[in-house]
User: Fold Tyrosine phenol-lyase from Psychrilyobacter piezotolerans.
Amino acid sequence: MPEPFKIKSVETMTLPNAEERKKAIEEAGFNTFLLKSNDCYVDLLTDSGTNAMSDKQWAGLMVGDEAYAGSKNFYHLQETVKEYFGFKHIIPTHQGRGAENILSSLTIKDGDWVPGNMYFTTTRFHQERNGANFRDVICDAAHDPSREDVLFKGNVDLKKFQDLIDEVGADKIPYICLAVTVNLAGGQPVSMQNIKEVSELAHKNGILVMYDATRCVENAYFIKDLEEGYADVSIKDIVHEMFSYGDGCTMSGKKDCITNIGGFLCVNDDDLYLRATAMVVQFEGMPSYGGLAGRDMEAMAIGIKEAMNYDYISHRVNQIRYLGEKLAAGGVPMVKPYGGHAIFLDAKQFLPHLDQEEFPAQALASAIYVESGVRTMERGIISAGRDAVTGENHKPKLETVRLTIPRRVYTYAHLDYVADTIIDLYEKRDTIKGLEWVYEPSCLRFFTGRFKQK
Assistant:
């Protein structure tokens, strides 16, 4: 189906020529994060804050109550989150990692363990910064990009979770971080059945269930589309049921709230809420704004409601499927099944002549830009970082390039261009060279690291 919206305002796009693109990537140290936005044609770096807001959201900006405390927009956001998510307390933050910081700081003790269905970069950073060890408890199929037969590759392997409990003791596990969907697995969903089973095992052992709710609407769509018994259930009701089995969540409003900035932390526990409000005052702002303007909270409240519309989320997921199917027709290797927010190219299969220590995903993302002006990002050994104890590179089984589709921004014609140029590049893939470090930051190195060709 075509886009379920009309275009009211446009932003002009310009494609730099080949020489300009080559110069730009060299000046950026072969790191697509360091490219200038004006040098990018179709920008698929991320779907975080790159959304197109609706007319209703823009209208909402005009009723922003910029009071320092007790803004009416906070109460609108609070009411909306309680209705759609069901959690008792909400604390706004400037974006999702602000919520991750608060949760990790308040719940983790040195030497604790935090299990999760695959790591996410900033989430694991905050957990480890506060003294925790991360343990991946996702199902094995999530690490195999070719496995198409597993529909819910984001599911937690309950045996892995139980083994960790037996190994370290439940008192050493403050919470399990349950991502819905799982970004680095390829945007893979978690089934409602698995959510229930994780909740039962965690709560039986006194362990909290804290969601990474960033793409919860996408997860709800997959449950409706794929899981028995949910075909006739609304997205809103599926989201509400998902969260009914947990104790809170971190949320980046820059994704499934369809805004350009913002996030929040939700909790049910009264004591944890009070401690969180004390911390948010130190690092974010008042508990009723958390580093956000009133107008941004209003846009987020409206965006939550719009995201639950089936036509909206169906179009979003089907844009990803469209791009995936077009690339697949050209023989391009990808993570399958296709996820909810991005296509993940399999860089190991795309560039089999490069060793993982030659950073194939980073090299491929750079080559895609030079070929087409399309900005993508690495999700592999660079994003995985180094072991905090040994200093050795983490070597994830998935070495991918993420083509992330912003919400309500690009048309199918843009996706045709992306697919056609990547297919062209795939046919001359042997020409792509590996990379080596020029500058490596001490943490979250994928954001600001710099490279050169070998």
